[in-house]
Amino acid sequence: MKIVIVGGGISGFAAYLALRKHLPQPPGGDHEYTIYEAYDTDETTTFRERTKHDTHSSTLIVGGGLGVAPNGLHVLERLDSDLLHEVVQEGYMVDHSNLKSKHGHLLMRLSSSGICPSSQTSNDRSPMHLLGISRHALWRSLRRRIPNATIVNKRVSSVTANPNAPNTITFTDGSPPVSADLVIGADGLKSIVKRALFPETDEDPYPPHYEGLVGIGGFLPSTAIHPLLPPGSMNFLFSGNGFFGYFYAHSTPSAPHRSSPHHISPPGDTLAWWSTYSIPSPPSPQTINPSTITQDLRTRYASWTDPIVKTILPTLTVETVWPMWTSPPLPTWDRDGIVLIGDAAHTLPTTSGQGSSQALEDAEALSLFLAHYLHQTYKTDTHVSEKEALKLATKKYTDFREPRVREILDRAQTIQNTKRDVGVFWEWVMYLGMWVVGFFPAWVGRWQRRVFDYDLPGEVERVLREGGG
């Protein structure tokens, strides 16, 4: 079977590794995999070089940092325990999040840990924490496990679904089209593959939506911060004129447990920071002057008295500028052996804290459903064709994933409204609301457990068992 993955980002690479792990061997030989990516995928390429082109990924926590929640780390663990430990070593584990006012007053403390009941590769039942890591470091760890020959540096121009034959992929360079039995769209918010699901119109019927917010961020030395910021926390500061966040970017190199997702290690010498605030029209990352934005940021937050913000404002430099985009809910994620994952299917706001984790869940869930139906097809006594098995698997995947992602999106959009500019009265109403909710940790924790402790393999097995698949 020919499998094409369009997009060489986190979701595309995770999909490749998950498929290689789970798909059964076909009767006539191994499956044939190709990943098409428009930009450079050399693992030595820096984050700045990889993001010099326009990007529409919402998996970013701006500044090049992101959070991989416990449910996402469990996907990595089930995929390859060595991969999990390598990724953890590249970042910093946090076991709680602090929600604060602009003056540094703690409004709410939330646990950032979770346990998966059916973890397949670890006997350690202690909680996994949340990982703060640079996006490039996570991408690079996945990239190291992809053979160079599998990745083709080409930009896809179109994908055409064929109900009774292989699907067709064309390219912008005019090279000959290729056919594939399975096409996985991991090509982000402005997905070309998505257009194949809705061929009735020439225009994108579900274009991305600018949220009216822009994110900026970067990294800076944390030596002066250590006395002010205890280990193991990710910090979120809210106000009426913007939002600010920061966390240690990695552990100290000498920490004995720096590759363990179950431990909080002494922090290293780098702090990751990011900020979000309202801008009516989406700016282009290529046309903005970072020095101007840096000065605007200092002016915007000049009245803040949080000690860490006050310490880093004079020295920080804006490294990235990202408009916040989301995608509207799609009526379907699949058609005739074409299927979407990650941002191509559901671009979540950064407030979800789940962009990368949900992309990883997509990759694992899709591979498990495909493995189940293809295994049935490759039996000698079955009458289900490979094409029909792909249709059944991708439809089951869509029906399985969409409700969970929709629930996370709905909650994230509510939280996102707290980052928009408001007056002093509503700022204090927001503070009061967070402070009151902080007195009911069991209520807040119930939602987090549903997200963090998610048993994806167990849920897939339940769906297949109940559906008679």
From TrEMBL:
The chain crosses the membrane at residues 425-444. Keywords: FAD, Flavoprotein, Membrane, Monooxygenase, Oxidoreductase, Transmembrane, Transmembrane helix. Pfam families: FAD_binding_3 (PF01494). One of its GO terms (molecular function) is monooxygenase activity. SUPFAM superfamilies: FAD/NAD(P)-binding domain (SSF51905). Belongs to the paxM FAD-dependent monooxygenase family. This is Putative extracellular salicylate hydroxylase/monooxygenase. It comes from Aspergillus sclerotiicarbonarius (strain CBS 121057 / IBT 28362).
